[in-house]
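To close the chapter, one final illustration. This time we ask the reader to focus less on the individual chains and more on the assembly as a whole: which components sit near each other, and how the overall shape emerges from the parts.
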Amino acid sequence: MRYHLPLTHPLLQTVDISVSFGGLQILDEVSIGIPEGSVTGLIGPNGAGKTTVFNVMTGFVKPDSGKVKYEGNRLRHVKTHHLTKMGISRTLQGVGLFPSLTARENVMLGASGHVRSGIVADALAMPWTDAEQRHIRDKAEAAMAELGVLSEADRLPGEMPYPVQKRVALARALVSDPKVLLLDEPAGGIGAADMRELGRLIRSWVPERTVLLVEHHMELVMEVCDLIWVLDAGKVIAAGSPEEVRNDPAVLAAYLGEDDHEDDHEDDHETVH
Amino acid sequence: MIDFIDYLLGGISSGAIIALMALALVLVWRSTRVVNFAQLGQAMFTTYIALTVRELTGSWFLGLIIAMAAGLVVGVIVHFLVIRPVKRLDTSGAIIATFGVLIALEALAAMVWGGDPEAFPPPINNSGYEAFGRIWPFSPYDLLVLASVVFLVLALSVVFTRTNVGLAMRASAFNPEVARLSGVRVNRMLALGWAIAGLVGAVAGVLVAPLSTLSPTSFDIFLVFAFTAAVIGGLDSLVGAVAFGIGTGLVIALVSGYSDSSNAPLVALVLLVLNLLFKPEGVFSHHKARAV
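The assembled structure is written out below.
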């Protein structure tokens, strides 16, 4: 069964995306849309294909069929390094920071797509590239300030606690001033207080920015999302408001399916005893 | 004792040149994880170009500049024509392919310039300074070599640590996927790594030619020294390449002085084996210290 939801203004959407690796169907005609100015969640049991959706959107994976549309136009041959210039920014599971670069350098890198001066001029440290360098530095520091990590600017990622590294990674995603933020498990490995703070932060970005969130922590997803898509085994099985999704029998079955499995296991155990 | 000092002094400029060669190997390794065995073949080729320019114009300096430009171009050509297509299939294939490039360049040079060794005289006086009533094995040319190497290394470190391009190159080398997501044009940065390596190698070639002779294979021996220095330095550390390049030059000078210069490659290989036995990740590897 295919799930279609009438969307008035999808800023970013996939249309009937299918992906398979080595005969395994990872995504099966997945169509999801992210309304402009919303926080949209993408959830599902492990292996449902959530990260693959991100990978298709960011050009890491070429779909077998289907298309990605951004601002109403089809994105053909998504070039990953063009994304930030187009206003699309993505964070990765974990942190994905460069360990030998300081926090500031890591964040400055996020603005690479906006560097205009040429390689030669930059290498020769021409005056106009100095001005550009300063501009990017200022932007990086503003983004770090927004996330409360400016004091860490000169430290290496390995010297910071994990939640702080996650914030630096978010600052890097923000520095290109994106219209769309694709966040892959931003709450992974952080505590309850940091998670509440993250929730407030994500809400503070909309409606100026649009957010697509892949996340395992259901409390966070239910709290911040306007719209939630549910994937299971590569198919969209439900979509709607947090309330609708929470009470959707298909969603309950998908998640309970995981639990059932564990229950079966326990039953086996009992019969043995 | 005075012998010891003489040998060390005599080894400084060749050490500095080996440092440049090791630097070129490291730049390529950092960008594409390939050991470029053709690096000194490229340097040999651009040094022939420098020789031709010099014979036509009479200017050593113009020869150097043209050789540097040629080094950039040859680096980019080798990357796009050979390494990128082969690497798409297999990384170790790309390393073997650099041997192919080396052989091709040596053959091409022999066809264009002939196989006989050519003299490449130094542009300035290469006889040692006189002081305290004796002649020391350190000449104005050695000073020029040292100054050029120091200037180039400083310029590179500024590019790598203070510019957007340097940042983007370091990011591309470490994690291409994340670099792309950050908006870095990774393929361009990898090509730039090969280009800069070609330029650095070209400078090394022009500087080293007066210390030996120039023939299609006369730089081959330096590959052993440069490779040793680069590996001991950790292969991805620019600082390590420079430090151990100079170190290797000094060790070779001592070995050549106290025994015979034909023992130098053997000593380099012994150093390499010791390094691989006791510190295989390299002395300046980024696993331990922060590499520039």
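DSSP finds ten helices and ten strands in chain A. Confidence is low (pLDDT under 50) at residues 259-273 of chain A. With these observations in hand, you are ready for the problems at the end of the chapter.
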